C-alpha cells in the first residue's frame, strides 16, 4: 500500500486530540451527568457506545438507536461533537442520520475484511473523521487493509486508534500494547492521526495514567479515554472507566511532548549525539561483518569435514554466555538473547549456502 494522501487532520492540527465519554450510553441522565462533570473545553469529541459488541451473549449490548435521542437532547444543552463505534452498514446509516461527528470501526470489526468493506461502502465519500481501531490480533496488515478499504471508498478524513492486542503472553494489561505495531503504522503513514485508547489496553483504572503518558512520550496524536459518572456501577467496562474528576486530574498530570524543538542548542546537541550514534552503528556493522565472515569460514571447514551446520551444544553455550556478558555491560539480557537468535539464524543461513555451493568446476567438466 502506498502512503495515502492523509494530510487533513480532523478540523485542525490540534494536538493532542482528546476523546472522552462513557463506554456505553446507558440513559440520558447517566450521559448528561458524565458530561457535566467533564471540562468540555478540553475535550474534542464526546464518545458514547450505542451498540456494544460483547464477547459473550447476555452481557449488556448497548441501548441502540434510542440513545441517539438522548445524545441530541444533551447536545442541545451542552454542545459537543459526538463520536461512536459502528459495526455494520445499518449502524452507519443510523449514526449519519443522527449527526454523529466522528465514527470509529472497532477492533472486532477490523479483523474482518468483509465487514470493513461493507462499512467502507456505506461511508463512501463522507467527510466526517473515521477512525480504525487496531484488529484484536497483532496483525499490522489487517489494520492497514481496513484503512486502505476506506480510502478506496473516498473516505479521506481517516485516523487510527491503538487499543492493544490479545496475545497469549502473560501481561498486566487487558490487551498487550505491543507499541512497535502502532509505531510501524505511524512510520508508514506519518500524517495519519494516531490516538491511544489506554482504557482498553489497561483494563483497569490504575494503569490509565502510565499508559496515557507513554502514548504522549511516543508522539501519539491524542487519547480516547472512557469516563463514567459512576464507574463501579457501569453496565460495561466498569473496571477501566474513570470518573470525570479523575479524568480531569489525568489531563492535568500529563506532560505533552513536542514533535520537535526550535531550540538551537537542543538541535545542535541532538546532531552531535546522532553523529556518535552513527559511528557506533558503523562499529556494530563492522563487528557483525567480521563475525559473519568467520561463520563462512567455519561453514567451509565443516563441509570439508562432513560435519553438520547446527551445533546444539555450542549454540546453547552462546545463548547462555552472551546474555551473561550483556549483564556486566548493563544491557538487557533478554534483548541480547533475541539479538543472538537473529544472528544465529543468519549464521545457519550463510553456512547452508556454503554447503549448497557447487564445487568450482574445471573448465572442461
Ligand atoms: C558457527 C557455528 O555454527 C552454528 C552457528 C553458531 C554461531 O553462529 O555462533 C553456533 C553454533 C552452530 O549452530 C559453530 O558451529 O560454531
CATH fold-type name of the largest domain: TIM Barrel
Backbone structural class: alpha/beta
Beta-strand portion reads 5-15%
The CATH first-level class of the largest domain comes to Alpha Beta
> Major sheet: size, sense and barrel closure?
8 strands, parallel, barrel
Going by CATH, the homologous superfamily of the largest domain would be Aldolase class I
How many beta-strand elements? 8
- Helical content class: 40-55%
The CATH architecture of the largest domain would be Alpha-Beta Barrel
Widest beta sheet: strand line-up: 1-2-3-4-5-6-7-8
Bound molecules: the ligand C=C(O[C@@H]1C=C(C(=O)O)C=C[C@H]1O)C(=O)O
Number of folding domains? 2
Overall mean pLDDT score? 94
Instruction: List the secondary-structure elements in sequence, H or E.
Output: EHEHEHEHHEHEHEHHEHHHH
CA-CA gap between termini: 49 Å
Notes on the structure:
The protein has an 8-stranded parallel barrel, surrounded by 4 helices. It has 13 helices and 8 strands. It has 2 domains: 237 residues, TIM Barrel (Alpha-Beta Barrel); 93 residues, Chorismate Mutase Domain, subunit A. The chain is of the alpha/beta class. The N terminus is likely disordered. Helix 5 packs parallel to helix 6. Helices cover 48% and strands 9% of the residues. Strand 5, helix 6 and strand 6 form a beta-alpha-beta unit. It binds the ligand C=C(O[C@@H]1C=C(C(=O)O)C=C[C@H]1O)C(=O)O. The site of the ligand C=C(O[C@@H]1C=C(C(=O)O)C=C[C@H]1O)C(=O)O has 11 residues, from helix 11, helix 12 and helix 13. Keywords: Coiled coil, Transferase.
Amino acid at each position: 500500500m502506498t502512503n495515502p494522501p492523509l494530510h487533513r487532520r480532523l478540523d485542525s492540527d490540534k494536538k493532542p486530540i482528546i476523546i472522552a465519554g462513557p463506554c456505553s450510553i446507558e440513559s440520558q441522565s447517566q450521559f448528561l451527568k458524565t458530561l457535566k462533570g467533564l471540562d468540555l473545553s478540553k475535550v474534542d469529541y464526546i464518545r458514547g457506545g450505542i451498540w456494544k459488541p460483547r464477547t459473550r451473549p447476555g452481557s449488556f449490548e448497548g441501548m441502540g438507536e434510542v440513545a441517539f435521542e438522548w445524545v441530541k437532547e444533551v447536545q442541545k444543552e451542552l454542545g459537543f461533537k459526538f463520536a461512536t463505534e459502528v459495526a455494520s452498514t445499518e449502524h452507519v446509516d443510523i449514526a449519519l442520520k443522527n449527526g454523529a461527528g466522528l465514527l470509529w470501526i472497532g477492533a472486532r470489526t477490523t479483523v474482518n475484511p468483509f465487514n470493513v468493506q461493507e462499512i467502507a461502502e456505506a461511508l463512501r465519500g463522507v467527510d466526517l473523521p473515521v477512525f480504525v481501531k487496531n484488529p484484536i490480533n497483532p496483525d499490522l496488515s489487517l489494520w492497514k487493509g481496513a484503512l486502505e478499504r476506506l480510502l478506496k471508498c473516498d473516505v479521506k478524513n481517516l485516523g487510527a486508534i491503538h487499543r492493544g492486542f490479545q496475545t497469549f503472553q502473560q501481561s498486566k494489561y487487558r490487551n498487550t500494547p505491543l507499541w512497535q505495531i502502532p509505531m510501524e503504522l505511524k512510520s508508514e503513514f506519518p500524517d495519519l492521526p494516531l490516538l491511544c485508547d489506554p482504557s482498553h489496553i489497561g483494563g483497569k483504572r490504575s494503569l490509565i495514567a502510565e499508559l496515557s503518558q507513554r502514548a504522549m512520550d511516543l508522539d501519539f496524536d491524542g487519547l480516547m479515554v472512557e469516563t463514567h459518572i459512576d464507574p463501579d456501577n457501569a453496565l460495561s467496562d466498569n473496571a477501566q472507566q474513570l470518573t470525570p474528576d479523575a479524568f480531569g486530574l489525568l489531563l492535568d498530570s500529563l506532560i505533552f511532548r513536542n514533535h520537535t524543538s526550535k531550540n538551537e542548542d537542543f538541535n545542535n546537541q541532538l546532531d552531535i549525539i546522532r553523529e556518535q550514534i552513527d559511528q557506533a552503528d558503523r562499529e556494530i556493522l563492522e563487528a557483525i561483518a567480521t563475525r559473519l565472515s568467520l561463520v563462512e569460514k567455519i561453514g567451509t571447514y565443516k563441509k570439508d569435514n562432513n560435519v553438520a551446520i547446527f551445533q546444539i551444544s555450542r549454540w546453547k553455550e552462546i545463548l547462555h554466555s552472551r546474555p551473561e556478558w550483556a549483564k556486566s555491560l548493563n544491557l538487557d539480557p533478554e534483548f541480547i538473547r533475541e539479538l543472538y537468535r537473529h544472528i544465529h539464524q543468519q549464521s545457519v543461513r550463510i553456512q547452508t549456502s556454503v554447503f549448497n555451493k557447487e564445487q568450482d568446476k574445471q573448465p572442461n567438466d
